[in-house]
Structures are given as C-alpha cells and as structure tokens.
Specification:
7-stranded antiparallel beta sheet, 115 residues, 53% strand, mainly beta, single chain, globular
C-alpha cells in the first residue's frame, strides 16, 4: 500500500467559485498512481468533517479536479488535472449512545484519469 507524505488538496471548478478540500494524510488509506496516468485514492474519514468529504465528492463523476500532494515512497510531487472516472462512497455507523459502536465515518474510493 502506498501513501502520501503531505495532505491531498482537491480543487474543483464549478460554475463560478472554485471549491477545494484538503484531506490530511492520516485519512488516506491508499494512494496508487500507475504509469498509465491512472490514480486511485482510498479515503477513510472520521470525525466532524466527514460530511464535507461526502458533500464535496457527491455527484462529481466526470468533473475535473486539480490534485496536489506528495507521494510518500518516492517523494514525488503530484500536481495536475484529473477527471474523476468513478467513485464508490459509503458511510459507516452513525454516532450512538451504545457502548463499543464504531465512530461515524465515510469511505471513498476515487478513480481518476490524468487529463
């Protein structure tokens, strides 16, 4: 499994404003950039910001993102435009008063292609 040594910043351009989202490296569970310009990122976000991640990527297939980070194994800086080919996203269990229940989380598998 490959990771990142810096937060990942996702920037997408909408009609007027540019929206961005920075995901700390501890939430990046897998980051794989292949030689055919394909990028797969798996995120697992817990805590109060999980709704931001869900809302940011919801209905974003085929949109263009500028992605900036540093890949950890070769310390390669990545900063380029990618199209989000597909996304799989689900949410973990909600917060509850029950004992031993997992905290709320969102998992996202993002499949990008370099433009």
């Amino acid at each position: 499994m490959v990771g990142v040594s810096a937060p990942i910043t996702f920037i997408k351009e909408l009609e007027d404003p540019i929206r961005d989202l920075t995901v700390p490296e501890e939430f990046v569970k897998d980051f794989h950039f292949s030689t055919d310009e394909h990028l797969m990122i798996m995120l697992r976000v817990t805590g109060p910001d999980l709704a931001k991640v869900r809302d940011f990527f919801e209905d974003s297939e085929k949109q263009v993102f500028n992605i900036k980070t540093i890949e950890s194994t070769q310390e390669e800086q990545i900063s380029d435009e990618f199209v989000l080919n597909s996304i799989y996203m689900d949410e973990g269990p909600p917060l509850s008063v029950d004992i031993d229940i997992e905290p709320a989380m969102v998992r996202a598998i993002l499949d990008f292609q370099r433009m």
